[in-house]
Amino acid sequence: MISVPREDSVTLTPTAPSLTDIPFGARGPLSSALLDRFAGDVTPFPAAPAGGDVLADDDVQLTLFLLYAAAYGSLPGIPAEMEWDLELLALRADLEARFEAELRARIPVPELPAATRDAVASALFALTSADAGPSLSRHLAKKATLDQAREFLILRSVYTLREADPHSWAIPRLNGRAKAALVEIQADEYGGGRADRVHAEIFAKAMRGAGLDATYGRYVDDVPVPVLTSLNMMSMFGLNRRLVGAIVGHLAAFEMTSSIPNRLCAEGLRRLGFDDEVTDYFDEHVEADAVHEQIAGRDLAGSLAEDRPELLADILWGAAACLEIDGAVGGHALARWSEGGSALRSHDDA
Fold first, then answer.
1. Is the sign of the CA dihedral 315, 319, 320, 326 positive or negative?
2. In whole angstroms, how large is the CA radius of gyration of the chain?
3. Cα–Cα distance between 65 and 144 in angstroms, integer?
4. What are residue 254's phi and psi, to 5 degrees?
5. Domain locations in the chain?
């Protein structure tokens, strides 16, 4: 693992980002070459392997995570100019094409409702209500050990320390009612003007309260590939304008499946002895997401379908993809825990 250096003295001039600012290592030749490129190496990239399961490919998913990090600015070790490097954009486009094709092959478009606000909202509520995927929140509420609770927070950290950012890419791609609805949801996610209530910051406080490091990227080496796949799917949907329907559907499903699980998570963390510093994030989402699910279903997804009916299929598909891919994260963790093992990659797979 590449460690983050400590600053022993104050410098008066800014320093360029370096590879040592990225607190994790490669998972294969492609991600290794990309990390080298960030450090200034101009060696040509190796060819991405053809075939195989892209969704489960550690090297491909870490490479995509790093390419998206260049756009987010989420890792200080990536020079800003890399965001628009033509070779990196070509690599991203190639990997995204394979990623999207595999997602579409694996996850069918649900039956489409009429392109009206109420019909779309009803269809989304029915889709999310019928989801029978594995529930980490129920396990956390009743059965999880202290170590499993900390692993749960680590699994959540790669997205939640940047919570809402993937969906915010959709704001400039929308208009009218849908845009207003998304801004209303995102304003809450970003604390409604209060820096201490930004949801990512509340989650960082929860991690610290549980004895974990809240530095972004600190646990990337530890999380299994389904965690990267889940975030990468959100990033791909958000960063590609043609997939705006999919990111809207994803957010709708995300909000519709959030309130009750967050209540269960808070119950489980209290059962294990954690205080309000750790449970605050989950308590906050019980009420907030109960409101957000109504806004996301009708005002966001439903209004977008009414205004742009050609996006209806992608709205429903994005919701289905959210349920399927997030379910894979839960399934992985519960399977490892049921075997008496760890859900973290560094314990079993590295």
1. positive
2. 20
3. 29
4. -60, -45
5. 19-106, 117-348
d(CA 39, CA 46): 17
Those residues with Cβ within 8 angstroms of residue 302's Cβ, 6 or more apart along the chain or in another chain: 116, 117, 118, 119, 120, 121
Axis-axis angle for helices 244-256, 225-239 (nearest 10) = 130
Distance, first Cα to last Cα, the chain: 11
What number of other Cβ atoms are within 10 A of residue 129's Cβ? 9
Burial of 119 (0-12, 13-18, 19+ CB in 10 A): middle
Tell me the pLDDT tens digit for each residue of 187-241. Answer: 999 999 999 999 999 999 999 999 999 999 999 999 999 999 999 999 999 999 9
Structure tokens at 338: 């049921």
CA 147 to chain centre: 22
Euclidean distance between CA atoms 188 and 194, whole angstroms: 10
Out of 1.10.10.10, 1.20.910.10, 3.30.830.10, 1.10.220.10, select the CATH number for domain 117-348: 1.20.910.10
Separation between Cα atoms, residue 56 and residue 334, nearest integer Å: 17
pLDDT per position as a tens digit, 59-79: 999 999 999 999 999 999 899
Q: What is the dihedral of CA 135, 141, 145, 148, to 10 degrees?
A: 40
Asked if residues 204 and 214 have their Cβ atoms less than 8 Å apart, the reply is: yes
Task: Report pLDDT digits (tens) over 307-332.
Answer: 999 999 999 999 999 999 999 999 99
CB 186 within 8 A of CB 168: yes
- Sort residue 264 into left (φ over 0), alpha (ψ -120 to 50) or beta: alpha
Q: Which residue has the tokens 């990111």?
A: 247
Of 160, 162, 164, 167, whose CA–CA distance to 237 is shortest? 167
